[in-house]
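Give me C-alpha cells for this 97-residue protein.
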Amino acid sequence: MMKQIVYTVGLSLFILSCGTKSTVNDLAVSNPIVTKMDLVQVDEDRVPVTIDPGRMVKDTVVYRLPKVVQGTYAISDFGNFIDEFKAIDYKGEALEV
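Here you go.
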C-alpha cells in the first residue's frame, strides 16, 4: 500500500512538472514602443531621439515617419527634419539602414 502511495505521488509530481513552457512575450507587436527624447542634449535646434521598438523576428524592418498627423490633416512630412538616422542592435553594433 505504501509503495502505491509513493508511486502515485511521484507520478503526480512528474506530470505537474511537465507543464507547458512559459515563453517570454517581448515581441515588438505585443509591447509598446519606447521613445526617449534627450532635451538636455539639444544642439543647433536638433534633439536626439532614441526609439526602442522591442525584439524583431524579421531580418528587414521598414520604419516610416508620418507625413500627416491625425487630427490636423496638414501635410507636415517629418522625414525632412531627420539628420543622422542610425540603427543599432542591442549589442551596440550599427545595422545597415
